[in-house]
Write a structure and sequence with these properties.
Elements (H helix, E strand, L loop, with lengths): L4 E5 L5 H10 L5 E5 L11 H17 L4 E4 L2 H14 L5 E2 L5 H7 L4 E6 L1 H4 L2 H10 L4 E6 L3 H6 L6 H16 L4 E4 L8 H8 L4 E3 L2 H15 L10 E5 L3 H12 L2
Parallel strand pairs: 1-2, 1-3, 2-9, 3-4, 5-6, 5-7, 7-8
Bound molecules: D-glutamic acid.
Length: 253
């Protein structure tokens, strides 16, 4: 296997980023590590998220990965700075709620950001809030139960729609016209979020922007894979059945 790109998330959410990378960079081999054993991370302590993320990155580096994508807003918020310091020769790409494109294009002047508690308390989000919060109103909400719904493959269940309504309707009532998906699990709920939010609300997901960033970094570092057959592996700290679920999610469109 030519050196692969390593992709990490607490569970299945980062598969939304895996799919964007798979589509944009078909020649690249990918190793996806979804913790699975300790998901969700969103309400865990800083120390736990930090330690789990380091453990995962070390595992991916032991597999020979040339670049690491933290396909998890929560892990990025907690650990990317320290990871870059510890591994200065490895390019890292992180995920952050896409506040900027939402703030620059809103017409109503009100945007919504859906993310985990840990991400909304992190420095990346706070900085974005400081930068754009003076011009636009930024409403934050934790997608309570959303991660579990995606982990259990219950994206289309009536219970999941109830969870989404509880979180999204109050944002719509307060006038949001842009809704940022600041957790990589949430794109799997996109169709139900769209249905609840209605036509007047644009949903903003960062996966494609991340794939463009990865492509640019591969070029900058001169580490793009040559044309050939890409390989895809799925690792986990849970069990083999979970690894199989990650693969199924990746190839299900
Ligand atoms: N998918 C992750 C994120 O982007 C983590 C969700 C969780 O484990 O709570 O934040």
């Amino acid at each position: 296997m030519v050196a692969p790109i390593g992709i990490f998330d607490s569970g299945m959410g980062g598969i939304s980023v895996w799919q964007a990378l798979h589509d944009a960079l078909p020649e690249e081999s990918l190793i996806y590590l979804g913790d699975g054993a300790r998901c969700p991370y969103g309400a865990r302590s800083l120390d736990e998220v930090r330690d789990f993320t380091f453990e995962a990155v070390e595992r991916l580096l032991a597999e020979g990965c040339k670049m690491i994508v933290l396909a998890c807003n929560t892990a990025t918020a907690v650990a990317i700075k320290e990871l870059r310091e510890c591994y200065p020769n490895i390019p890292f790409v992180g995920l952050e709620p896409a506040v900027k494109p939402a703030a620059l294009t809103t017409k109503s002047g009100v945007i919504g950001v859906l993310a985990t508690k840990r991400s909304l308390e992190g420095d990346h989000f706070r900085r974005a809030e400081d930068k754009y919060g003076a011009e636009v109103r930024i409403l934050k909400a934790v997608g309570e139960g959303f991660v579990e719904a995606v982990e259990n493959n219950e994206e289309q269940s009536p219970e999941t729609e109830t969870l989404v309504r509880r979180v999204v309707e109050p944002l719509v009532e307060q006038g949001v016209d842009k809704l940022v998906l600041g957790c990589t699990h949430y794109p799997f709920l996109r169709s139900v979020i769209e249905r609840v939010a209605g036509d007047g609300v644009e949903i903003i997901d960062s996966s494609e922007a991340v794939a463009r960033r990865v492509a640019n970094l591969l070029d900058e570092h001169g580490i793009r894979a040559e044309a050939g057959v890409a390989e895809y592996r799925f690792l986990t700290f849970a069990d083999e059945a979970y690894a199989a679920k990650l693969r199924d999610k990746a190839f299900k469109k």
